[in-house]
Amino acid sequence: MAAIATAAGNGAPLVAVRDLAVRFVSRDAAVNAVNGISFDLARGEVLTILGESGSGKSVTLKAMMRLLPEGKSQIAGKVVIDGNDMLRLDAGRLADVRGTAVSMIFQEPMLAFDPVFTIGQQITETIMRHEPVTHEAALKRALDLLELVQIPSAKRRLDAYPHEMSGGMRQRAMIASALSCRPSLLLADEPTTALDATVQIQILLLLRQLQRELGMAVIFVTHDVGVAVEIADRVAVMYAGRFVETGPLAAVIHERRHPYTAGLLASTVHGAMRGQRLETIPGAPPNLANKITGCAFAPRCRHVVDGCRRADVPEFWPAADHMTRCLRAAPTPLAAD
Amino acid sequence: MSPPPLDPRDRGGKAQPLLAVTGLKKYFHLKSGLLSSAAGVVQSVDGISFTVRKGETLGIVGESGCGKSTTARLLMRLIDPDAGEVIFDGETIGTHDGMSIREMRRNMQMVFQDSYASLNPRLPIEESIAFGPRVHGIPRAAARERARSLLEQVGLDPNLYVRRYPHELSGGQRQRVNIARALALEPRLVIMDEAVSALDKSVEAQVLNLLMDLKTNFGLTYIFISHDLNVVQYMSDRVLVMYLGKLVEIGTVEAIYNRPRHPYTRALLSAMPSMDPARRTTQPPLTGDPPNPINPPSGCRFRTRCAFAEEVCARAEPKLVESDEATLHHVACHMAIPGSGHSAATRGIAEAAAS
User: Domain check: are B194 and B267 in the same one?
Assistant: First the structure.
């Protein structure tokens, strides 16, 4: 595996994650939410993490941003974003990096904003925390940002409180706030899930446009294959805290190699399936409080062989940019068990 | 699919709609805090009429705030309508010579989106399912027996699950319990209000398969409300489109999805994410959010977001007119009404869209 670039020079990936693992510990149980994730992300690239609830996709983002409660979570591995070793930064430096190198948007903007300050106040506060600018200059930038995210009558909206805006508008305002210090990486945790389809597509197109114009890299977490298709350059399919398949969008959709990816795509309903019985993945995801040996998907997999349960399935690379953790992709076919 | 066996409870025969709704209306009056004077009116459901035929699935789609869930709650009488008449298989609901609310609820049941909020957290699921039948006079032992049999029908092994509490189940399992609970009174019509929306895709597919099976096994009729147009297309025989409290278009699923006539329906359909990486959406079909349902626009309520809006659209409200008899297709748009005064009224919407 490639060595981690410590300085963000030319050619080095913007993001390098190695063997990231997150474990939540309480008195009663320990849950292994993320079990060893490694990936690189280039500048200006959009990676979508696709997975169902409990797969660890949001936890991965929060771990990268160091947003998990310190006492209750144990994070291992290495996360480098724009030359910053995220898991080893002290609190002061971490606060500097959040917003300028990496920022994050969430599913529920109402919870991301403070309800007692106006949108304008909150965005200018962010800018002035990070940059030595006057209040006037910060306010001017806040206005530019609201225009950038296409909020109508932006000047008036600077003085609006979060509750005075509609859901789509709040989501735009949150994007404006996240972009206020020109981060090179945006982490997006299901930002369109709570929106109507007509508003969702507007936000997706806006994010795509901003990402292109600002040359920003994005890691976009979603459970919705349709959303992934609209936004991703590369897709990582996550199951039980692991990437089980990664590759360019078209490869993952059309040449999927992992049975879980196939099952997820087959069970996503679309109109052409009318009158047919839907293909489903039997059973339910594993309980991550228990120790899992071998492939976590094995109990639900129709192609399972003894080898799947024996040991962890390594990464296989059917193409230079396409990875899957499935024994069926092994270069030498398995002997029948 | 073989025709469902004749229901002994059937009164008017196959041709009589199971549910006929006329002029259903609900306004919510907003009060301003201090003086309690009326601050505005939300025209949540504004005079909608439709029928549900025996054995069909009627899908209802629209953006949030369009009144789909209010419609469901009005039908169940969880809230009282301001006006309108609901007739269940020939009997008017809530009148002296018609059907009582209590009897209606034996025939009509509902499954909600939030599977946890709709179960009593202090009752084992067996008791939750048996509760309705017991209220309706079925002896305890028989009600429990029915609960067990229903759990089996929805794919949960009664021996494992009867004594469990809602918090011990996953979301998909809880929604199966809610479906069993809805079926416990042997209803003829079940309203699914975003019943699969909170589930993961792989679980959603399992529940949709289950709903299809139950429909055949119990000879059910569904009203299926969802914001997910893919799921509605998969489930429904006919589809009803709502916008800000109004019914704007209704017809067979083929007519609505393949030949939509209302500009709003067209926009809604093209807002669906494409499933093909080579054909991504490039242009948002609508700009802005749905307008506030408090004091909606005059005339056609969609005109403020409609690319084809003309002077007539602000002046007059378009009536729901038949657009095609074979596909039971009705639409409320001035462009579909010859002589309405809209310039595209004679040309048709497809040509107007092309030019």
Answer: no
Q: What is the pLDDT along chain A (337 residues), one digit of tens a residue?
A: 444 434 444 568 999 999 999 999 988 889 999 999 999 999 999 999 999 988 999 999 999 999 999 889 999 999 999 999 999 999 999 999 999 999 999 988 888 899 999 999 999 999 999 999 999 999 999 999 999 999 988 999 999 999 998 888 999 999 999 999 999 999 999 999 888 889 999 999 999 999 999 999 999 999 999 999 999 999 999 999 999 999 999 999 999 999 999 999 988 888 778 888 998 888 888 889 888 889 999 999 999 999 999 999 999 999 999 999 999 887 765 443 3
- Confirm whether B252 is domain-assigned: no
Q: By the 8 A CB rule, do A316 and A329 touch?
A: yes
| C-alpha–C-alpha distance, residues B244 and B261, integer Å | 18
Asked whether residue B255 is domain-assigned, the answer is no
CB B273 within 8 A of CB A271: no
Write down the ipTM of this complex. Answer: 0.83
Which range of residues forms the domain containing residue B279? Answer: 263-354
A42 vs A60, A245, A252, B41, CA distance in Å? 18, 18, 19, 52
**Would you say B230 and A274 are in contact if contact means Cβ atoms under 8 Å apart?**
no
| Pairwise CA distance, residues B178 & A256, whole Å | 35
Residue A113 to residues A173, A178, B134: CA-CA distances in angstroms? 9, 11, 48
Contacts of A263 in chain B (CB under 8 A): 202
**Distance between CA atoms of residues B348 and B344, nearest Å:** 6
> Would an 8 Å CB–CB cutoff place A197 in contact with chain B?
yes
Whether the CB of B170 is below 8 Å from some CB of chain A: the reply is yes
Subunit contact B272:A204, Cβ cutoff 8 A:
no
Q: What angle do CA A320, A43, A55 make, to 5 degrees?
A: 65
User: Domain of B218: which CATH number?
Assistant: 3.40.50.300
Residue pair A41/A185 in contact by the 8 Å Cβ criterion: yes
Residues 294-313 of B with CB under 8 A from A: none
The answer to whether residue A52 neighbours chain B at the CB level (below 8 Å) is yes
Q: With contacts defined as CB-CB under 8 Å, which chain B residues touch A226? A: 230, 272-275
Residue with tokens 């609190």: A91
Q: Is the residue at B250 inside a domain?
A: no
The DSSP string of A76-102 is EEEEEETTEEGGG--HHHHHHHHHHTE
B11, part of any domain: no
Torsion angles phi and psi, residue B246, rounded to 5: -115, 150
Question: Hey, of A151, A171, A201, which one would you mutate to test binding to chain B, going by the most B CBs within 10 A of its CB?
Answer: A201
| Contact residues on chain B for A58, CB-CB shorter than 8 A | none
The distance of B85 to chain A (nearest Cα, Å) reads 30
**Record: contact A250-B278, CB cut-off 8 A:** yes
Cα–Cα distance measured from residue A236 to residue A41, given in angstroms and rounded to the nearest whole number: 12
For residues B95 and B219, state if they share a domain: yes
Is residue A281 within 8 angstroms of chain B, CB to CB?
yes
A234 vs A246: CA distance, rounded Å = 7
DSSP-derived secondary structure letter, B47: E
Beta strands in B2-105 (DSSP E): 19-31, 38-52, 57-61, 83-88, 91-92
Look at B281 and A197 and tell me if their CB atoms are within 8 Å.
no
Can you say how many angstroms the Cα of residue A230 is from the centroid of all Cα atoms in its chain?
Answer: 15
CB contact under 8 A, B275 and A281: no
Query: Nearest Cα to A239, choosing from A328, A329, A325, A327?
Result: A325
**Beta carbons of A269 and B204 less than 8 Å apart:** yes
